[in-house]
């Protein structure tokens, strides 16, 4: 017999024939004992009157929502009324609550102990910035692959994945052996760009493009957000500013090609502190020696155009997966993309021509707190995107183990949150920033397994739900193949 548990979906059948979907908000740890004292069967009583007695006498709270046909939440109450029957939700009810498994929805998994799918609304998902949070090893990257696959299949959004650990594009290793990357599942829609051709080829990946960035594209803001990683003092930042004012777009080349024997004269010339200029010279040379920075060679426009035609791009960092390279490149590309989308959106607003409407873009970023910490969040384009939401059709999917390090304003703007197990109380607090029912949700979060279980809440899902995440395996790959997909042969021979 089924047992009652926290987060369980129940249906309250009203006398007028309507149904209310409800979830168990709390349970005493010893509710079984209470039931015995009440002389009730150890599992949930099936008779309406007994069920109601149980809920009232045991103060079991239900969070109830009535979902109407358009998916809107209509009512909230806590205890069934006399005469209303309460039953466990069936698989049919699940479809009513979440919606169908189709191209308009992202199929994530199932509610615990049930077999029908929990789905999120694609349109609502891409409208706002979203977050996947959880400790290391809880399945964030696997879940991101599932969500991205479903988004690619929906063909409603372009995605750019800053793939720090080169795990999304092509085959990678997991505890279960080899797993496929997005390019293998969707050869027509996914392109792999790499910053490190040797590393990609060494792993048997044939990248579509090797990304080169002209150093002139780097602004002082791009360097300023690396202050912590490069250990730049305020005096160095000031010196950078002064030289930038004088030299314009050649500021970086100018500093990095100073004569090391003559820094004193140069410091006097610019009116900056010699020691700061010396240190700046050293640190910026470290940047300039990154092999993907190439004078006069700029393949960024290829990347921008691919995104504007609704492709998904995985940018592999290969061996340049240190935070300095990752943050420099991700922030620079995102800044340029954002300004392109702002222009494109303004053009569309003026022309009102649907052909001018930009394809929504979702940017996926791991270690997101590095870009979205309090001070940094105010200065990076990532922070701007997270705050201004969907205005310009660009949103973020942030993946992070340490939500407590992320700026609270950014967290409170997130549309949909997908939360796997977290232990740190600060992280748990942070992840529910700006959400009502925090007490209840914290309770639910504490019941999650160590992996492959998540709590979904927010814009793209009608009610917060604990989900058993579907497996990312051979069956998943097969389910992604559509009749028209030419990838079938490549994948399965
Ligand atoms: N949906 C899934 N299907 C199959 N295996 C999974 C799934 N989710 C998690 N796993 C297993 O759990 C392991 C850890 O998952 P994953 O790499 O996604 O964790 P993570 O949260 O991204 O960790 P980190 O923060 O360290 O990057 C995987 O190697 C895989 O074996
Ligand atoms: Mg991961």
UniProtKB/TrEMBL annotation:
Start and end residues of each Helicase HerA central domain: 106-336
InterPro entries in the record: HerA-like, HerA_central, P-loop_NTPase
Any Pfam family: DUF87
Superkingdom of this protein's organism: Bacteria
Protein name: Helicase HerA central domain-containing protein
Protein source organism: Candidatus Abawacabacteria bacterium RBG_16_42_10
């Amino acid at each position: 017999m089924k047992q009652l548990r926290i987060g369980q979906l129940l249906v309250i059948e009203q006398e007028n024939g309507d149904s209310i979907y409800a979830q168990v908000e709390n349970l005493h740890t010893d509710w079984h004992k209470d039931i015995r004292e009440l002389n009730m069967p150890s599992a949930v009583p099936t008779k309406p009157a007994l069920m109601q007695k149980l809920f009232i006498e045991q103060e079991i709270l239900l969070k109830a929502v009535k979902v109407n046909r358009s998916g809107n939440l209509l009512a909230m109450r806590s205890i069934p009324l006399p005469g209303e029957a309460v039953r466990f939700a069936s698989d049919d009810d699940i479809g009513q609550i979440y919606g169908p498994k189709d191209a308009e929805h992202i199929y994530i998994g199932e509610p615990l102990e049930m077999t029908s799918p929990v789905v999120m609304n694609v349109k609502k998902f891409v409208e706002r910035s979203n977050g996947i949070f959880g400790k290391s090893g809880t399945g964030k990257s696997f879940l991101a692959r599932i969500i991205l696959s479903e988004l690619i299949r929906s063909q409603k959004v372009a995605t750019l994945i800053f793939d720090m650990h080169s795990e999304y594009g092509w085959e990678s290793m997991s505890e279960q052996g080899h797993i496929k990357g997005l390019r293998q599942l969707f050869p027509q829609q996914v392109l792999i760009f790499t910053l490190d051709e040797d590393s990609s080829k060494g792993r048997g990946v044939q990248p579509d493009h090797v990304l080169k960035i002209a150093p002139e594209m780097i602004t002082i803001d791009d360097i300023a957000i690396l202050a912590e990683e490069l250990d730049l003092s305020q005096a160095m930042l000031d010196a950078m500013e002064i030289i930038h004012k004088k030299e314009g777009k050649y500021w970086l080349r100018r500093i990095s090609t100073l004569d090391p024997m003559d820094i004193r004269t140069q410091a006097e010339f610019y009116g900056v502190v010699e020691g700061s200029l010396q240190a700046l010279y050293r640190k910026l040379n470290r940047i300039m020696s990154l092999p993907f920075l190439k004078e006069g060679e700029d393949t960024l426009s290829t990347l921008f155009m691919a995104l504007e035609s609704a492709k998904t791009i995985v940018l592999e960092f290969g061996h340049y997966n240190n935070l300095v390279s990752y943050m420099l490149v991700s922030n620079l590309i995102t800044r340029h993309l954002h300004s392109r989308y702002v222009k494109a959106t303004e053009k569309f607003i003026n022309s009102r021509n649907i052909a001018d409407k930009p394809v929504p873009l979702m940017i996926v970023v791991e270690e997101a707190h590095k870009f979205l910490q309090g001070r940094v969040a105010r200065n990076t384009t990532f922070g701007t995107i997270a705050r201004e939401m969907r205005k310009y059709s660009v949103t973020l999917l942030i993946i992070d183990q340490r939500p407590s390090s992320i700026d609270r304003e950014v967290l409170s703007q997130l549309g949909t949150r997908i939360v796997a197990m977290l232990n740190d109380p600060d992280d748990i607090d942070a992840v529910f920033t700006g959400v009502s029912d925090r007490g209840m949700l914290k309770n639910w979060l504490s019941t999650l397994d160590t992996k492959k279980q998540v709590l979904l809440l927010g814009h793209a899902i009608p009610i917060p739900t604990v989900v058993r995440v579907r497996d990312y395996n051979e069956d998943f790959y097969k389910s992604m193949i559509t009749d028209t997909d030419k990838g079938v042969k490549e994948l399965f021979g």
